[in-house]
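User: Before I run my own analysis I want an independent prediction to cross-check against. Here's the chain; please return only the structure tokens and, at the end, one sentence I can use as a sanity check.
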Amino acid sequence: MLLGMAKRHTQTCAVAGFLNVFGDGWTWLIIREAFYGATRFSEFHRNTGIARNLLSQRLSMLVDEGILRREDVGEHGPRYEYRMTPKGEALFPVLVTMIQWSNEHVFGAGREPIRLLELNSRKELKKVAPTTARGRVLHWPDIVAQPGPGANKAARMRILESLHGIED
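Assistant: Structure tokens:
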């Protein structure tokens, strides 16, 4: 466990697993900066304000988790850059959703700190939402959770209890 990180969740749960990697605010600020193009330790430090020791720990954890890769780009001794891996790039819709939610529910219309625009049209992105194959937006009552192959007995029971009364 990293210094300053919360105790690891032991539940067999997708949310708990996610929080074991991304459960602190600094990690998301580092990921934000990686998407914005930061690659060097000094850039992450300057742009987040995180203490150097915590930044070093979080970068190491993100490398260990396969979110970032560390490349030695030094010509005269070691000098490292951090780049997104495909696993890290898969966080793109999560980051977009976080920004959109925060803009709407934390800052409010007309006070958004950042707007996400499509590069060519310069139009704001549509709100990220789960959809059917035909594009209909789904809401939580439209979705059913089923135990997956990695669910332990307790998780399987909890999920099956939540399905009581719902037919396949």
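Sanity check: Helices lie at 14-22, 25-36, 41-48, 52-64, 86-89, 92-107, 153-162.
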